[in-house]
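Good day; I would like, with your permission, to put a structural problem before you. The record follows directly beneath this note:
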Amino acid sequence: MRLSTLVLMLAAIAPSTIVAQPRFARATTIGSVDSVWSPSLKEQRPYLVYTPPSYRDTTISPQRYPVLYLLDGDAHFHSVSGLIQILATGVNGTYAIPEMIVVAIPNTNRMRDMSPTQPTTGLDGKPWPNPENTGGMPAFLKFIQQDLIPRVDSVYRTHPYRVFVGHSLGGLTTINALYTMPEVFNAYVAIDPSLWWDNSTLLKQAKERLTTRPFKKRVLYVAQANTLNPDEVATNAHFSGITQFNALMQTYGATGLRYDFKYYEKEDHGSVPLIAEYDALRFIFEGFKVNMQRVLQSPRVLLQHYQQISDRLGVTFAPSETSLQLYGAIAQDSAVAATFAEIATELYPTNYHAWNRLGLLAAAQGGKLKAKSAFERSLKARPDNAVAKEQLRKLNAPDR
């Protein structure tokens, strides 16, 4: 199949195939608001939650989803959930990353929560105003680890892969989380992090923190904005702190840590988050997107592909039911389409819809025994399944 033809087919079929549930309602409802009491912070903390379209799709098996935890959630919730919506849900065949839940953490006291220490002086050498309102990051990270994550895991169908994203002081927070609790998240994203904080205290810790312990299967993405002015190239502590951190990583690295860095020359501190979030997600899940033409020629290559992804990320991933439906729908060969249906029943054996699809495809190919077996499995999964009952009635009817 020519690539241009495939792209056009995907553009035509994807919206109706993938977004089967009421999508117009979801277009106006991006997420939900919840809260949890935090003994660590001694306050009720709100959070925003985005779930992907397939989360409530009753035609597929209940699936589990990786979770992206997002700092400054009130500012970045829309942009990050939108990125995941377009990259992960199969629009135009784009399964570049897995579908994910987004948990966005709004601020209540940003300076307190996202500062690791209490500084005595600022960058200008003058006394720091209100130092008592700083240094709360250890308690904030404890809240995320001990209060928020367990709550989210208990309420939502979560997958064990977690991503932690922060910008500015939030980026400083994600780096400190990597230092102090690398087992909690699988991937850490620091966007233009404020490594200048308190005389660059976290920067000074970087070599020891990142080179003396293993970070097997962990990922770190650091983005740097162009925050330079012509008269402060040599004195810009924010810019130089990130540059020094990257130089240290390039020189020493960290055991098992997959690392990438990008300087965004055309973006400033305020504009860099959106493009950096996109690039970070593509880096974390590099190689996740399948070679469509290859898969359509040999469907079981798909299972090998996801095994490689699982080995790389350290957590098991599998093709989603919606992606298998899409591949089967655009397959020009009925035997290929049936193979995608078979894979769906192997991965999601309790979903009667998958067995129905397999039965219908087998019947269309003249495979009567295979079709009957599929519809019988469908009835076992859902005894009131009208489609399977009708198809079995037809298959069992005497030939005339």
Observations:
- The radius of gyration is 25 Å.
- Confidence is low (pLDDT under 50) at residues 1-23.
- The chain has two domains: 31-284, 293-396.
- Strands lie at 32-38, 43-50, 65-70, 101-104, 158-167, 187-191, 218-225, 257-264.
